[in-house]
Specification:
alpha+beta, 2 helices, about 20% helix, globular
Amino acid sequence: MFGCYAVYVDEKLVLILRQRKDHRSDNGVWLATSFEHHISLKKLFPSMRSIRLLGMNETAWQNIPACAEDFEESVMMACDMVIRNDPRIGKSTVMSRK
């Protein structure tokens, strides 16, 4: 996906893994989340921040930067949350039928 690796669980996009030469500050693990979960996730992932290449405004998706001191610990915790089906991580890829 756009030169990155997308991680899905069933029909839910949960993470994007990014390691590219352009916009290196955004390399790391992108969390599929929404604005409403940022405060609670920031408590768990202190290095989490918006994705800079998407502009200056806060982004719904969040990045755990590869250069962060707590990168490995944070990514392992995020993976554990995905395994537990934590509703704060993941975006459905199924279009609702109305």
